[in-house]
Amino acid sequence: MKTTIALMAALISWGGFSTASAKLIEIGDVPLEVAATINANISVEKLPDITINETGDGERYVVKLKVKGEDKLILRISADGDLIKSSRDVNLKSLPKNVRNAVEDYLGDFGLVVDIDKVTKGSQVSYVITVEGIDDSTSKIVLAQDGTIIQAEADIDLNDLTKKLRNKVNALIEEGEVLVSLSRNIDDGTVTYVLVVENEETSVQTTLTLDRNGVVIEEEAD
Fold it and tell me: What's the distance, Cα to Cα, between the start and end of the chain in Å?
């Protein structure tokens, strides 16, 4: 669905990395300043995967520490050893109270946290939460350190909406159309709803974006 693709594109952009011209290297091949930053964040007995990327701002070293095949720590380091960004796998209990409460409020009884990454970029800290729904759907939310949801996207059921909003959605589905999907998006505190409807005769799909009051703010037909 377009919204899912858009969200993933936004998350990748937010992550700020590129795999173009990436090359795997050994720990002994990195500059001393980069090695010092790696050693300050990773125990010396653990050997991470290191790739070097050519970017518009110069060389970037991406350091990944894997445990049982999963990324537990990712460091992005400049050629002079500055730690640009780190992403560390953490658990729910280690989250600040505001963040933990926001996650629990967001999930309600309908989701399970399957992964949490603490992301540090300069002085800014955020948390990327991967959630698995009871229907095996997966979504992600990004929260600030104070628990504010920066970005989120999740498929929902029509019955999850308030009665007023549900009536507005139903009114937008014309005769001969079926509801294909419905999602709730939160981007920098702004809530929108995206529904995809399909004409049963022509198979043409239309994507409608609504504000939190059910007003159509964007419409696109495939």
Answer: 11
Say if residue 69 is exposed, middle or buried (CB neighbours under 10 Å; 0-12, 13-18, 19+). Answer: exposed
Question: Which tokens sit at 202?
Answer: 């022509």
* pLDDT, tens digit only, all 222 positions of the chain: 333 333 333 343 334 434 445 788 888 889 999 999 999 998 767 788 899 988 777 889 999 998 777 789 999 999 999 999 999 999 989 999 999 998 888 776 567 888 999 999 999 999 999 888 776 777 888 999 999 888 887 788 898 888 999 999 999 999 999 999 998 888 877 889 999 999 998 888 999 999 989 999 998 876
pTM of this structure: 0.62
- From residue 20, alpha-carbon distances to 17, 52, 55, 77, 97 in Å are 9, 10, 9, 16, 38
